[in-house]
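Workshop exercise sheet. Pairs work together: one partner reads the sequence aloud, the other fills in the structure field after running the prediction. Swap roles for the next sheet.
Pair: D.N. / O.F.
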Amino acid sequence: MEIAVSGGGSGTGIKALLSGSAEIADASRPIKDQERKAAEAAGIHPTEHIVAYDGLAVIVHPSNPVTELSVEQLSDIFVGKIRQWREVGGTGGDIVLINRDSSSGTWEAFKNLVVTLNGTAKDRDYAPEALAAPSNQAVLDLVASTKAAIGYVGLSYLNERVKALWITPVGGGAPVPPTVANVQNRSYPISRALYCYTNGEPIGKLGEYIQWIKGPEGQAIVEHSITDCLLLYPKIDVSRQL
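Structure field:
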């Protein structure tokens, strides 16, 4: 059996499923209403499979004295309302925004969870001056090399080249560090489900593959961050801290 895999973002994968050029679309956001309508018009029946949960870590340069921010502060930063690090307890001048490209499910998830405050401020949008990066790794590289930068990446991309901030949920409370355990127990505010979409319920080899992803072997691979995911099932121990 020959298997072809390509990237390009959640929207690209869903488009491929709708066109019939892909049997599985991986996505880090739910399918949109307009995408589902387009699928139905094309005779495609997108079926959703939640295969993991991921946390988005907000990262800054290691030299940045800021250690925590609220979701509200992050929203103000990424819409361009807060422009100086000193406005949030830091030092230095202008904040440099590092964003994902708009075809990315990560871009969509961060916009919903942070920029629009869990969808309660839908008129909010990313500041036009934000720099767009094509991947998690590109975001990390830019933040690691830019002292005034702030960006966001999947937890599995974290390393010593950047500093991950603790995040206070919308409405207040204690700041929460971005760890595997906190994503699993849903206490970390910037968490999302990760999906596979198929055309109808998968059968044959396709069905076996989806079940394998959800099973012990597939979830063990998820744990090792092959796709910057986190384990879906709490029965598997992922209590280690990043």
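Discussion prompt: The helical segments are 10-19, 33-41, 71-79, 105-115, 136-144, 180-184, 204-214, 216-223. What would you look at next?
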